[in-house]
Amino acid sequence: MYTTLLTNLENGIFTITINRPDKLNALNTMVLNELESAVQRVCEDENIKAAIITGQGVKAFVAGADIAEFLEVPDEQGAAFSRKGQQIFFKIENCPKPFVAAVNGFALGGGCELAMACHFRLASDTAKFGQPEVNLGLIPGYGGTQRLTMLVGKGKAMELMMSASTIDANEAKDIGLVNYVTSPGSLLEKTREILGAILSKSPFAVSKVIAAVNAFYSCDKNGFSEEATLFGEVFASGDKKEGTRAFIEKRKPVFK
Question: For the whole model, what pTM was predicted?
Answer without folding.
Answer: 0.91
